[in-house]
Amino acid sequence: MHIGEQYHSFILSSRRDRRVRDRFQKMVLNLLADGDDVLDFGAGTGIDAKAYAASGHKTFVYEPAEGMRDYLAHHCHEEITREAVVMVGSPLACKVHAVTANFAVLNYFADHDALFEELSRVVRRDGFVLVNMLNPYYLGDARYGWWRKSRMRLMRNGRYAIPSESRIHHFLPRTVARAAAPYFRLERLTPHGLGLATDLFMFLLFRRA
């Protein structure tokens, strides 16, 4: 099975992931005004892009992984044909009201300073960036040795990387907010309180300064 098709099937079959995606999409659509356009950064197989386009938002999609891109072209074929979804080779190829990055896309970056500087040239004034990142406070990870070994690095440096081939990085919210400044300010962090211990993902909403 094609890698993009495998991912697509897996993530749609996971009830937990569907709930997370539904919350993320709902937040995006509540923030967008009628006719606002959006860049889906790290768009995967186009699941979110298809939903945004269905709600009347022209959606640019940036996906660097070839396998994902190929399946995105299949999944969003009709939307691409009528230019409701537009594939771009670089985020800088568009100017939009919002950038979204779902399911830990930003956790693959070791540093966000250059990324947010680039996104500042993509997002219009008063626009926003909404990202879904791995929650570094999630207690479900406490069963893993790497989580216990990395707690002090997280508190000291505001980040750490899992010692694996994927090199996934975890970040404190304030570390991401510091990287986003001065171009963006952190406007909202979800969840709050006990949710920070029980939710695998956190949503960070940044407003263009």
TrEMBL record:
<dbReference type="Pfam" id="PF13489">
    <property type="entry name" value="Methyltransf_23"/>
</dbReference>
<keyword id="KW-0808">Transferase</keyword>
<dbReference type="GO" id="GO:0032259">
    <property type="term" value="P:methylation"/>
</dbReference>
<dbReference type="GO" id="GO:0008168">
    <property type="term" value="F:methyltransferase activity"/>
</dbReference>
<protein>
    <submittedName>
        <fullName>Methyltransferase domain-containing protein</fullName>
    </submittedName>
</protein>
<keyword id="KW-0489">Methyltransferase</keyword>
<dbReference type="InterPro" id="IPR029063">
    <property type="entry name" value="SAM-dependent_MTases_sf"/>
</dbReference>
